[in-house]
Amino acid sequence: MNVRKLLLIAAAVLLAGFLLLQLVPYGRAHENPPVAAEPNWDSPQTRELAQRACFDCHSNETVWPWYSNVAPVSWLVQHDVDEGRQYLNFSEWGQSGEGEEAEELYEVIAEGEMPMSNYLITHPEARLTDGEKAALAEGLAITAGGSPTAAGGEREHEGDDD
To answer: Domain tally for the chain?
Structure first.
């Protein structure tokens, strides 16, 4: 068998394998549940920075890029979103004790752990300057100490009679 024939067989096997991967159902359940409650943001700037750098993995407002439909990349994207929402979800604020983790929110952003570097490769808009990182970290720490806001934007007050 000559080299050319071996290369064609190898390419056909790789293509068949790639096509078979597309049959695996995981990674294409691109569900964005409704926004239940958002934080009472300390400022519009904090929300804008969080939306730019965090919402795709940490909210129910994920923007699913085209490659999130192509295995095996779709598996990684789905895993990151599932894990991100489980850890911190800005669209379900107040349901997981986010205020207790204010210090950790500050640290992961200030130390550059978030957004993740593999996310930044395909989302350059999420690259924050040092000043933006500091503002986001501080704003989230302040926000995490506040009370949740209903999805409609009205702040919830216990005991209000209005």
So the answer is: 1
User: Which phi and psi angles does 131 have, rounded to 5°?
Assistant: -65, -40
User: Per residue in 145-158, pLDDT tens?
Assistant: 754 444 444 433 33
Please tell me the distance from the alpha carbon of residue 56 to that of residue 65, in angstroms, as a whole number.
Answer: 10
**Among candidate residues 87, 86, 85, the one with its CA nearest the CA of residue 61:** 85
Residue 157 lies in a domain: no
Backbone phi and psi for residue 91, each to the nearest 5 degrees, phi listed first: -90, -5
The residue with greater pLDDT, 16 or 102, is 16
Q: For residues 139 and 49, give the distance between their C-alpha atoms in angstroms, rounded to a whole number.
A: 9
What is the C-alpha separation between 137 and 105, in angstroms, rounded? Answer: 7
Which residues form the domain of 62? 3-150
